[in-house]
């Protein structure tokens, strides 16, 4: 006799395949959910790490800004101190100049002539004096020309003096002051 299988094997096979399909779908969903969770956790940790790095950079930038301000303040103070030191050095260097100018004024002064008024304006020295003769004034001007401390003497006025000093002439003279180069220095 022939064996006939009347059981619904096709439906069972279909049901079995459908179960396997559902299990595979559930497995794929669980694996996809796990991978999504791992990916999200990784992204969250990377974002947190980057935010911590950004915060560190911001604090380091603020510190560097403070240090830059301190450095600028120190540079400004240094420049101010250097400027003060330069002024002091200039004053120290010019201190003996006025002494040398007065010494040179005495050295260039010929006999029969004296000064009554001296006025310094910048590098120009205005002199008012009395002289026995015009030749003594000329001699004074030549000595100013030969001096290393004075240059360009300019006689502006010669007039006869009042009766108290008969024979004397009053003169007005201006001369430029110059500072000679120190000996032994090469430029």
| Rg for CA atoms | 52 Å
How much helicity do the residues have? Answer: 55-70%
**In order across it, which strands form the biggest sheet?**
1-2-4-3
User: At the first level of CATH, what is the class of the domain at 88-175?
Assistant: Alpha Beta
Q: Which ranges are low-confidence, i.e. pLDDT below 50, for 5 or more consecutive residues?
A: none
CATH topology of the domain at 88-175: Gyrase A, domain 2
Characterize the main sheet.
4 strands, antiparallel
Number of helices: 2
Series of secondary-structure elements, N-terminal to C-terminal = HEEHEE
Overall mean pLDDT stands at: 87
Q: CATH superfamily of the domain at 88-175, called what?
A: General secretion pathway protein M, EpsM
Distance between the termini: 136 Å
Task: Give the overall shape, derived from the CA principal axes.
Answer: rod-shaped
Which structural class should the secondary elements be placed in? alpha+beta
CATH architecture of the domain at 88-175: 2-Layer Sandwich
Provide the β-strand percentage band: 15-25%
């Amino acid at each position: 006799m022939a064996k006939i299988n009347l059981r619904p094997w096709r439906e069972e096979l279909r049901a079995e395949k459908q179960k396997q399909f559902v299990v595979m779908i559930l497995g794929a969903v669980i694996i996809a959910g796990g991978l999504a969770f791992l990916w999200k956790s990784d992204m969250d940790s990377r974002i947190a790490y980057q935010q911590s790095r950004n915060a560190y950079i911001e604090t380091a930038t603020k510190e560097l800004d403070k240090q830059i301000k301190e450095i600028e303040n120190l540079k400004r103070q240094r420049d101010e101190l250097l400027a003060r030191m330069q002024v002091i050095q200039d004053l120290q260097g010019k201190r003996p100049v006025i002494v040398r100018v007065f010494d040179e004024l005495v050295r260039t002064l010929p006999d029969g002539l004296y000064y009554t008024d001296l006025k310094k304006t910048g590098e120009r020295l205005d002199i008012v004096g009395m002289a026995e003769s015009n030749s003594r004034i000329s001699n004074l001007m030549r000595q100013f020309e030969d001096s290393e401390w004075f240059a360009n003497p300019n006689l502006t006025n010669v007039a006869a003096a009042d009766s108290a000093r008969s024979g004397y002439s009053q003169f007005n003279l201006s001369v430029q002051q110059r500072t000679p180069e120190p000996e032994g220095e090469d430029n």
